[in-house]
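Structure tokens please, single chain.
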Amino acid sequence: MTLSRVPQLDPHDIKLLRIFAKVAESGGFSEAQAELNVSAATISTSMATLESRLGMRLCDRGRVGFKLTSNGQRVWQAAEKLEEAIDLFRVEVGELRGKLVGNFGVGFADSTVTNPELRLHEVFSVFVARDNALHLTLHVHDPDTIERKLLEGKLQIGISAFYHHVPGLSYEPLLREKHSLYCGRGHWLFDLDAEDVSVDLVRDADYVRRGYLGKRYEGVTSELKASATAYDMEAILIMIRSGAFIGHLPGHYARDWAERGEIREIACERYAFYSQFQVAHRTGTRELPAVQAFLADFQKVHAATRSRP
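Here you go.
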């Protein structure tokens, strides 16, 4: 690869490389439109300009679909390294000034907003009150996606119940969350008295399984008749409310629906389980100023919560 036609990168080149990196990450022009919030024509023009500036073709696009060229793969890798270097420069200069700077991504599991013990809103309130020029990006993902994005450096903090601990990440325990079985109004278990709901009846019911649960919970769910799969709590709740399925929900998330009589907890402790919420970060990043500050603020909020009468 030669940059003879580009003796040095200017701000416009960096902007073009960022557009290219998003296109490469998304797997195509149309896929990147929503992320970039620009038209397909703008993306196409930007890509053509970048290819002209670099003097090489970066991708093939057309009827056969989108595919990076070998040079495109190398430029994408170089662009990611450049972005990391820019972020590191901002962080180090900010640290010298006593200010938190750079991009800071936090990923967390869905339905956490109703968990009264997690108190994420209080953590962010304390965190953003620090002297900072951070750009915060929040993501709601399943645990596997959070772990992958942490490893890729696209998130700095992950908060979830993680079912597969992966090498390269460090995990710190937060709290336990109980998950019970629920059925919806219209389900044949809904109107039965609690003492009449037997293990055999529960096993006969169609169950919506959670797609990312790990092997540690197979003993709880393996006896159930998995007839559908969902990857977030809202989808599971929809299936439960259909009256056709039973499924697991955390009590805090189910409470309002249960109080309205839309769903009902199935009182069968055999199939209840606890998930361990944790905060995760890439190994070796705990001492980075923003990561260190966020974890300290998390501990501060939860220590104050535990000390309340």
